[in-house]
Amino acid sequence: MPIQRQDVEYITELLNERNYKVLRSVFDDMNSVDLASAIESLPQEQALIAFRTLPKETEAEVFAEFDSDMQQKIVEAITDTELSRIIDDLWVDDAVDMIEEMPAQLVNRVLRNSSPETRSLINQFLNYPENSAGSVMTSEFTKLSKDMTVKEAIEHIRKVGEDRETIYTCYVIDADRHLEGKVTVKELLLANDNELIKNIMETEQPFTVTTDDREDAAKLLAKYDLIALPVVDAQNHLVGIITIDDALDVLREETTEDFHKMAAISPSEKPYLKTSVFRLAANRFVWLLCLMLSGMVTGAILGSYEAVYSSIPVLVSFMPMLTGTGGNAGSQSSTMVIRGMALGEIKVSDIFYVVWKEFRISIIVGIILAAANYIRLLIMYGNLGLIPLVVALAQIGAIIMAKTIGSILPIVAKMLKIDPAIMAAPLITTIVDAVTLVLYYSIAGKLLM
Amino acid sequence: MPIQRQDVEYITELLNERNYKVLRSVFDDMNSVDLASAIESLPQEQALIAFRTLPKETEAEVFAEFDSDMQQKIVEAITDTELSRIIDDLWVDDAVDMIEEMPAQLVNRVLRNSSPETRSLINQFLNYPENSAGSVMTSEFTKLSKDMTVKEAIEHIRKVGEDRETIYTCYVIDADRHLEGKVTVKELLLANDNELIKNIMETEQPFTVTTDDREDAAKLLAKYDLIALPVVDAQNHLVGIITIDDALDVLREETTEDFHKMAAISPSEKPYLKTSVFRLAANRFVWLLCLMLSGMVTGAILGSYEAVYSSIPVLVSFMPMLTGTGGNAGSQSSTMVIRGMALGEIKVSDIFYVVWKEFRISIIVGIILAAANYIRLLIMYGNLGLIPLVVALAQIGAIIMAKTIGSILPIVAKMLKIDPAIMAAPLITTIVDAVTLVLYYSIAGKLLM
Question: Which residue of B has its CA nearest to A372?
Fold first, then answer.
């Protein structure tokens, strides 16, 4: 259960009393996620003492749950022997995550203190491209050979299982480490002891390549309801697995990135509360500047209609409503399409179907909204002559164009291998602003001047 | 691997040749996810024949993967005996998902053809509130008692495992079905045969209550890296588990809902391509209407400054840039806060910290953008007198107000138990439009008239 205020207070009290015996038994009852967040919420001095009070077996597990700032502080404070023990106990993917966030001199100290095998694995992982399947996989998995019996396989798992991040899916490989099949522990337990693995293994299975995109790999786990996905290298050797908990983290991070991009924010890795004001300002500034420049272009276009609005100033008061509704209508369409593509529900080949659908939606929505608007204008400003008609026509046109633009741009981006999430509300509303105002004042110029 | 065009063509060919023997062997090599999507892409007649060609054991598994339209068509076409066999083979949560989407007369036929136990389970599930933990749990899980030895436990799993959706986490319950602890199959396999379960079980573990929100339950699985989460009723009886694959689906659905709400679309359950134009139009219309009405209010406020812009019409051409930049700056803040709260990174109690952070960001971003703008205006329109200063001041003010409003409103919504996702771009930009224009024309009125 989530860590409570009183737990932290109790731990602080025990630390002050130097009652390490009771503290150890409190720690024993807590899981590593809660332990890590309790220790993180202590003042630095006490956090270090608390961390050192942990039983050796859980040290690495708790360490893996800390955020990178806390990990750095610990690494700086502990001895080389302690460091070396923790690193060798960490899952390799967690060790790599830690190292990626660290300043260079600490990285060197960490690598110096890992065992040769761990160091070579870490180096191998660090070389996989960012956001690749290789960068999130773990190299600890259970290998079986197809000529084992079920009984031998279970014995093998019982022997080596302690070092493996997940044992529930075992992979069958040949002498050259080529992936031949998989068998789950469930299948092993339900099979006859003397059955051969080759008779019960599944040979057709989803897999990913180290250089594939980590998001695509994570989606495969989600699609096929897997708890682990095998990762092979270019020569089809099995080199690791991606576990469901890491896949879940990947999907959440990628989704957060989409949310941010869709709000014109350059994505950042750190949580909001831990990112500096300058970093946050920088992540937002570039996009705001681009959009401001587009807004200036809209202003320049608008300037060419000065004759219209300076002779009929009341037209100005309908501008926010027209651009606002247009922008919102366009963002609805682009969000639908961007999210649909992210979920794999909409494909590039659906472009005509999607645009035709959005076109029909825009006709329905546009006509009803414009009609409501027209009636309101007739009632409230009966003396405006043709102006209500101008507003209504501009509104229908704006909504149709907005939904068409909003649905086409994300798909076109995908075709051009640009992230569709960029074609979201901010850019769409900026484009729709310009288009709506040109339409509005053109119609006004024709009908009123 | 994803289903290929040629697979479907090959299946069609085999169906046309009535070569059911080869077809069966093709089906044997495919997993249920790919099988379901291959069959769904066939014309209806052929899809039915293909479905009937499936081996009895995989029928239910493939059926569970179909979308609800296809499930209905199958249910309408098969005999009561076939229906009854499929339903009893389905996991109860899949059967419930199917029933929730069906018209009433089909639901009755389905319930009539399930075994009494399945029917009572389905009814029990249907009574859990929508979006509750109870509505996504499965009642098939492995129960152990604490006085079993490891050997007995493994034998028990081997005996009953076939009916259980996940066997990897087993739950220890007392005679009254109260949850006492859990033990994973990994722990069982690594333990000594004669060890008692009570000595190796974990007694402290995250759990959820049937009436809890399903999203909170899914987040617990993600937070603690679980593959199953126990669900208890109000009397603390263990009644089911939520598995990681279902939790992942919940998180994806809830995220999609957030995306849609944040774009002013009422959430819908069905995928975009399967939703009718009228349904989609209706989901978007209400919000557009509300936002249009707010836009009218902005227009009315703007009307009161007619004296200002009718005497200095050039002011109008800077409006889209000012409202656009303000709206985008506000949406950036609200998106950051909404997503941060959804991930649990930002809490209601952080409100002052967040607003202070956004205020400092807005000062930095606002001053730089306004300065850039001011210089541009001086260069391009040197003869505008104080107008560049008015635009720059309005811009700084608009960005500060936008980021403050954008960061406060989602947190206030959360305090009032309203979904923060509603306080996103569409609403924020509408509010910021009004505030920006009032500020702009007030400054213009003071400095220029």
Answer: B289
Residue A374 is which amino acid? Y
Does residue B140 contact residue B164 with C-beta atoms inside 8 Å?
A: yes
Neighbour tally for B145: CB within 10 Å: 15
> Residue B46 pLDDT more than 50?
yes
Scanning B379-438 for CB atoms below 8 A from A yields: 425-426, 429-430, 433-434, 437
- Helix, strand or coil, per DSSP, at residue B406: helix
- For strands B179-184 and B166-173, give the pairing: antiparallel
Q: A1 falls in which pLDDT band (50, 70, 90)?
A: very low
Nearest CA in chain B to A312: B310
Span of A327-331, B108-112, B127-131, B422-426 with lowest mean pLDDT = B108-112
Average pLDDT over residues B253-268: 86
- Contact between B368 and A298 using a beta-carbon 8 Å cutoff: no
Chain B residues with CB inside 8 Å of A225's CB? 33, 245
- The one-letter code for the residue type at B271 is P
Q: Give CA–CA dist B104/B440, Å, rounded.
A: 58
Closest CA–CA distance from residue A3 to any residue of chain B (Å): 11
Q: Which two tokens stand for residue A161?
A: 């299982």
Residues of chain A with Cβ-Cβ distance to B278 below 8 Å are 364
B81-109 pLDDT, tens digit per residue, is: 888 888 888 877 788 877 777 777 777 78
pLDDT band at B75 (very low <50, low <70, confident <90, very high): confident
What ipTM did this prediction achieve? Answer: 0.80
pLDDT tens track for A107-142: 778 777 777 777 777 777 778 888 889 888 888 889
pLDDT at A223 over 50: yes
CA dist A126 and A136 (Å) reads 10
Of A449 and A415, the one with more pLDDT? A415
- Report the distance separating Cα A391 and Cα A389, nearest Å: 5
Contacts within 8 Å (CB) and 24+ apart, A229-236 = A230/A141, A230/A171, A230/A179, A230/A182, A230/A205, A231/A133, A231/A134, A231/A137, A231/A207, A232/A179, A232/A207, A232/A208, A233/A209, A234/A209, A234/A210, A236/A178, A236/A179
Which of A251, A256, A437 has the CB atom closest to B343's CB atom? A256
**Whose CA is closest to B333, among A260, A396, A129?**
A260
Those of residues 247-286 in B touching chain A at CB distance below 8 A are: 248-249, 251-252, 255-256, 259-260, 262-265, 271-273, 277-278, 280-281, 284-285
B359 close contact with A: CB closer than 8 A: no
CA count, 13 A, side-chain hemisphere, B119: 11
Q: Is B17 helix (H, G, I), strand (E, B) or coil?
A: coil
Query: Dihedral sign, CA of B179, B184, B187, B193?
Result: positive
